Amino acid sequence: MPVAPTPPGGFDLHVPILIIGAGACGLIAALAATDEGGEVLVVEADPLPAGSTALSAGLIPAAGTRFQAAAGIDDDPARFAADIQNKAKGENPPELVETLATGAGPAIEWLADRHGLPFSLVEDFDYPGHSRRRMHGLPSRAGRELIDRLRAACEARGLDIVCNRRAVTLFRDGDRITGVELQGPDGPERIGCDALVLACNGYGGNREMVARHMPAIAGALWFGHDGNRGDAVTWGEALGARTLHLGAYQGHGNVAHPQGVLISWAVITAGGVQVNLHGARFWDESQGYSEAARAVMAQPEGIAWTIFDDRIAAIARQFQDFKDAEAIGAIRGADSVADLARVTGLPEAALTATLAALPRDGTDAFGRRFSGPPLAPPYRAVRVTGALFHTQGGLDVTAQARVRRQDGGALPNLFAAGGAAVGVSGTGDSGYLSGNGLLSAVVLGRIAGQQAAREARTEPARP
């Protein structure tokens, strides 16, 4: 992905604000820029907007919202920021953590009030690392719905989203970005701009970069969007920008195998467990689904069985992915432990001992705390593997989503958000707090759009 001087022949078209990527981050940046009076063009490599968002549950953590208040939940950004830093062992830039924790609530309410997205709070189970219930989602609890509603909001505002156009070259004049070259069905197009927002996600689809920066997960199933090729990082490095935490990522240890369907971690947080092919548990599942990827991949054949019961399945059915997994037969049912052993192929004696050893109200040998109803028939089980979902490192940015140079200053008109920018998940996988990916996409995307609009207004008139 080269960076080149401004072409002598100029550009085919000029727009005040150009946004690369039409996932949640890019679409929110476009809405925010328009609210600031900016003129926007969004370009997307795929035939339709989707990105990593469409593969997710579409849940966004936010503190101090009216949705929490209606549920009687006392929460605030300071508590949220502390949870983010606790999960990442304090490895995140404090300014970025404060920006995201403070901006999440207003962003959710802005999307609900200004653009009609019908958010509600997930109230019936807890996510690892969150000290309050603060996950907000749309009715289907699916990222595809989030993308579709954001696209509809953009269309209602008359925003231009041009698909099947992949950005291949950035043009510069000193530190200032002057435009991009797009590769499309009719050949190359050169678009000039006053401000550029990189919302083109991370680099999980670039196997060479994954092997270089996160070798521990290089052999796992890639469950993200194949368009995540690391363009933003490559461009940034060519521009002399600073990168941060390139070894950080979001894994997931609960992907139905071989069906390739995400199984909500609610099946674990509500009381389920994971066992290996020997019928034995192997870790403290309450740590989180990101670190679960490595834990599962370390088991024989990189496979585990997630075991829960009918009560827990009823909770998980609020997620479309879970209903899809049931519809295709990935979720197996059993009326007894002997039946469970039969449908999973696990050794009955070991499985019986494992389930009998689960504490009813206490802490087990792995350090996991159990409370609430114990597992009881009828049981449910799903065969799962570990996967890489999303990279969490990226371009270092200011609180205004401006890309930082190596010397700490900011490039004047280049913004990055979502997977293109560093997240708040520390330096590895265990620092990922549920919802961190969309947290960065939504909050930094909104900030990037606002700031890009202000930058475009101050740009001198072109001759």
Automatic annotation (TrEMBL):
Pfam families: FAD_binding_2 (PF00890). One of its GO terms (molecular function) is oxidoreductase activity. Gene3D superfamilies: FAD/NAD(P)-binding domain, Succinate dehydrogenase/fumarate reductase flavoprotein, catalytic domain. Its cofactor is FAD. InterPro entries: FAD-dep_OxRdtase_2_FAD-bd, FAD-oxidoreductase_2, FAD/NAD-bd_sf, Succ_DH/fumarate_Rdtase_cat_sf. Keywords: FAD, Flavoprotein, Oxidoreductase. Residues 17-427 form the FAD-dependent oxidoreductase 2 FAD-binding domain. This is FAD-dependent oxidoreductase. It comes from Roseicyclus persicicus. The lineage of its organism: Bacteria, Pseudomonadati, Pseudomonadota, Alphaproteobacteria, Rhodobacterales.
